[in-house]
Amino acid sequence: MLSHLALLGALALPAALAQSELLTNVTIFTPPANYTVPRTLYARTVLLNQDCETDNVLLATWENYLPNNDSNPYTPIYQSLDLGETWSERSRVYDQANGWGLRYQPFLYEMPQAVGNYSAGTVLLAVNSIPDDLSETQIDIYASTDKGYTWSFVSHVAHGGEALPDNGLTPVWEPFLMIYENQLVCYYSDQRDPLQGQKLVHQTSTNLLNWTAPVNDVAYSNYTFRPGMTTVSQLPLGNWIMTYEFYGAPEAAFAVYYRIANSPLEFNNSIGHPIIATDGTVPISSPYNVWTPVGGPLGTIVVSCGTLSEVFVNHNLGAPGAWTKVPTPEGISYSRSLRVMPDESRILITGGGQLGGESNSVTTSEFDITPVGAKLASCEKSASGYGRKARL
Ligand SMILES: *[C@@H]1O[C@H](CO)[C@@H](O)[C@H](O)[C@H]1NC(C)=O
Ligand SMILES: *[C@@H]1O[C@H](CO)[C@@H](O)[C@H](O)[C@H]1NC(C)=O
Ligand SMILES: *[C@@H]1O[C@H](CO)[C@@H](O)[C@H](O)[C@H]1NC(C)=O
Ligand SMILES: *[C@@H]1O[C@H](CO)[C@@H](O)[C@H](O)[C@H]1NC(C)=O
Ligand SMILES: *[C@@H]1O[C@H](CO)[C@@H](O)[C@H](O)[C@H]1NC(C)=O
Ligand SMILES: *[C@@H]1O[C@H](CO)[C@@H](O)[C@H](O)[C@H]1NC(C)=O
Ligand SMILES: *[C@@H]1O[C@H](CO)[C@@H](O)[C@H](O)[C@H]1NC(C)=O
Predict the structure, then answer these.
(1) CA of 268 to the centre of ligand 6 (A)
(2) How many domains does the chain have?
(3) What 3-state DSSP class applies to 222?
(4) What does DSSP assign to residue 121?
(5) CATH of the domain at 287
(6) What digits encode the pLDDT tens for the residues 367-379?
(7) Full-prediction pTM beyond 0.85?
(8) Is 179 within a domain?
(9) Are 301 and 233 in contact, with CB atoms under 8 Å apart?
(10) In angstroms, what is the span from residue 132 Cα to ligand 2's centroid?
(11) Does some domain include residue 391?
């Protein structure tokens, strides 16, 4: 009888989930030595979770600096079918609209609901298309209706000028996508307004084709201030958080700031706060935020930055003074990204290396918010394969 119960227990708590160790410095991609420095940068991931057959597939992408500044750079799409342990190429997204290449700042998103003619589960890529001479910037949307194997151009969102981060030039940068109230929202950094060196804006679309005019999210009256790099997460109790880097902050150049709002379309009515950890640390540059329901009754906000291995967590919906610095195994990278894994105590952190880095590669690691505990996903998993499907 006892052994029978023990067997049932073993089946009920799948071994793969309970025993798998946190990922540490897993290599997603090592660029060949002939890639142009910095070779890789700005890594992003998406965890597919809208269709049972592809649930828990991870896709990754990054800025990919081909040899000899190849004039038709593509956005690489890599896949992991084992929750980040091993990676292989899934597809390459080439420029289908401008003849320039897809060069900077790719972002992946799986649609949780239909918008326009695109069904739930469509995978979107937002990316900055830029010609070889860096003379223009164009944030474009591509869609994959087969989970990232093939891609089609969907629409242009925003066109800007020369792709250099100098005040007075007019580029657009760093798209971030999210669906809110049946619209796709595209957040990005915008240097086109003569009143601001750079500001943060968003545009929305109800069909992925036609976009509203830009609306400010963060725009300071001091022209030299440069807020940049929006990411947004939903919080419980009806609020939303955006993080951004803030050149012009009194704490430090590019200090990580955040705003809380009860609509993700109205961050401009909110006040920016610096993240200052309980030990006094101010994170600097290229933040990314996620929220996970574990870690306390209000869940946990997690924010990474571009100058420290550690991340910053807040168990109190972003209350100032409630940020603590916690270690991760992942090294420092410019613009790392975070992803809440199916076991929501585990956070995947992915980096593509540093600006100017001559030995950059794309790596990923995990850290945990609380001791690992099983949480069943919405789709049935076999006892041997919970969360770690061997095949598609
Ligand atoms: C770059 O190196 C890779 C791997 O060694 C090689 O396959 C490729 O042909 C090289 N490309 C160029 C343009 O030299
Ligand atoms: C690539 O472009 C950068 C920036 O324009 C330049 O500094 C570098 O020399 C170029 N590299 C090659 C291999 O052409
Ligand atoms: C959606 O598809 C239908 C049928 O093909 C077409 O008539 C309609 O114009 C499409 N709508 C959009 C917004 O693309
Ligand atoms: C919406 O976008 C489509 C595709 O680019 C275009 O054909 C159409 O004219 C646009 N509609 C409006 C109202 O701008
Ligand atoms: C704008 O900020 C800079 C510091 O970044 C400061 O030197 C300057 O005085 C500020 N200008 C105004 C009008 O406040
Ligand atoms: C925020 O943006 C909205 C929409 O553009 C605008 O109506 C409002 O006045 C702005 N608020 C602030 C404080 O800038
Ligand atoms: C992971 O990589 C980082 C950066 O290279 C390094 O600091 C760290 O020691 C590595 N961790 C392990 C466990 O190897």
Answers:
(1) 6
(2) 1
(3) coil
(4) T
(5) 2.120.10.10
(6) 999 743 334 444 4
(7) yes
(8) yes
(9) yes
(10) 10
(11) no
